[in-house]
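Inverse folding, one chain.
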């Protein structure tokens, strides 16, 4: 099971880390690069997901297996739908075959795509016949995963008539949709988002363009947690922008409540424990940044702070059911957690059990979210290699600032 035993951290947490490019930005740009081959990408993510995406896009195989990579499954489904005269089977892990994709497939079929389910209706694997898709209007629920919406927006400029995408109901995960649109804008693709309609104009060619990917804010979250749990600590992370496209950049504001000060220095982020933690309950809606929910819950547990997190409905269909997993593992450590289908309530407590083995459920974020508790107690992380899904050098970087 590749169990990683981590001793309690007994030295001052300090150091500098270069974090790889954002997985979210990289995966969007990799799709766009297939349409516009004079696009150059710098500081790409070195995550498993991005490597899988690159491999799948370059593949000449009839069947492509993308493992646990949810983003790749969604984006590639749209990409192969419009890759004319191609035929491919997209499949994945057992968990992937139980992650819904019907909403995206329905939208693509409305546009004229040719997609069949090979096993369960509404789930991968999919057989996709790429063709010239000519319809230009689709309607989708606003509260669905932003990856479905982004998958459609990424192919939009390649469609003959562009795309008019209409939302039904309130739109959630807005930052990820804005990220996709901002990347399109960098390629001078014209779009308008007014009320519940996004209109993307067609664009067949672009000028030569180089885009440098900002480092990943989700990966920064584990250092925010470590600094919050370690008195007098200071960590410098590069390369980050004050005006980030990533929704998880809200970390800087959230962690002010947990005693962490964020300072921007050129293209770096300096995190400092300012020893001014006020022990009051944390109440946050994470609808726009669900990927940092695990980190925040564990930080609050480590600090003995009550917290109530809402807007978490997408966590049930991630690599694992993250809400159930969080409840199970925090309770092993002595915490008390209540969950619904979209909320998590953590009761304040002041005791953490030592040397508990944390199960990670094939979920990279479960592994990394619990590691900062080593600032308080020795801990063990099961299946430690799972971090490579989004952050392959995590263990080396963690060691750099803690030993």
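Residues assigned per position:
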């Amino acid at each position: 099971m590749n169990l990683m035993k981590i001793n309690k951290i007994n030295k001052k947490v300090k150091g500098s880390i270069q974090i790889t490019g954002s997985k979210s930005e990289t995966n969007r740009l990799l799709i766009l690069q297939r349409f516009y081959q004079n696009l150059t990408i710098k500081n790409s993510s070195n995550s498993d997901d991005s490597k899988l995406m690159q491999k799948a896009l370059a593949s000449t195989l009839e069947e492509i297996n993308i493992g646990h990579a949810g983003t790749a499954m969604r984006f590639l489904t749209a990409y192969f739908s419009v890759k004319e005269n191609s035929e491919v089977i997209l499949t994945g892990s057992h968990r992937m075959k139980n992650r819904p994709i019907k909403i995206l497939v329905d939208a693509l079929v409305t546009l004229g795509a040719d997609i069949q389910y090979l096993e369960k209706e509404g789930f991968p694997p999919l057989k996709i016949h790429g063709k010239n898709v000519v319809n230009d209007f689709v309607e989708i629920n606003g509260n669905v995963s932003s990856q479905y919406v982004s998958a459609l927006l990424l192919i939009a400029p390649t469609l003959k008539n562009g795309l008019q995408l209409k939302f039904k109901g309130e739109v959630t995960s807005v930052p990820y949709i804005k990220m996709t649109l901002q990347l399109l804008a960098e390629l001078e693709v014209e779009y308008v988002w007014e009320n519940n309609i996004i209109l993307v104009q067609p664009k067949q060619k672009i000028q030569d363009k180089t885009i440098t990917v900002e480092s990943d804010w989700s990966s920064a979250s584990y250092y925010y947690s470590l600094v919050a749990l370690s008195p007098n600590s200071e960590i410098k992370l590069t390369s980050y922008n004050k005006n980030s496209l990533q929704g998880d950049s809200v970390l800087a504001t959230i962690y002010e409540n947990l005693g962490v000060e964020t300072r921007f220095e050129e293209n770096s982020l300096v995190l400092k424990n300012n020893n001014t933690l006020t022990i009051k309950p944390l109440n946050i809606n994470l609808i726009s940044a669900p990927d940092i929910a695990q980190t925040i819950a564990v930080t609050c547990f480590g600090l003995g702070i009550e917290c109530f997190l809402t807007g978490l409905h997408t966590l049930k269909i991630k690599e694992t059911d993250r809400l159930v997993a969080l409840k199970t593992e925090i309770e092993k450590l002595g915490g008390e957690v209540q969950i619904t289908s979209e909320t998590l309530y953590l009761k304040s407590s002041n005791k953490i059990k030592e040397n508990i083995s944390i199960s990670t459920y094939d979920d990279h974020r479960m592994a990394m979210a619990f590691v900062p508790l080593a600032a308080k107690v020795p801990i063990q992380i099961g299946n430690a290699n799972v971090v490579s899904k989004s952050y392959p050098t995590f263990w080396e970087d963690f060691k750099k600032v803690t030993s």
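The mean pLDDT is 94. The chain is about 30% helix and 20% strand.
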